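look at this record:
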Amino acid sequence: MTGPGDEMAAAEGRGRGELRASHADREQVIVTLKAAFVEGMLSKDEFDQRVAQAFGSRTYAQLAVITADLHVDPSAARSPEPVRL
């Protein structure tokens, strides 16, 4: 099973790291950062700094650096499913 950021890491490995990242890509990195913060891997200051860095990132390579040292459970970093009524 792949986890968040795997697509970015794979793209960087194939020389596509300089492609522009979308807003959805930045949001997925932030979801991963939130999971890492909840699991105690990041302090509040580190979390805030990395979120700011994610919002400022323009490429897959820049985003990949933000979460490269985090090993978050993929289910913890999954975007919540919308509630259907």
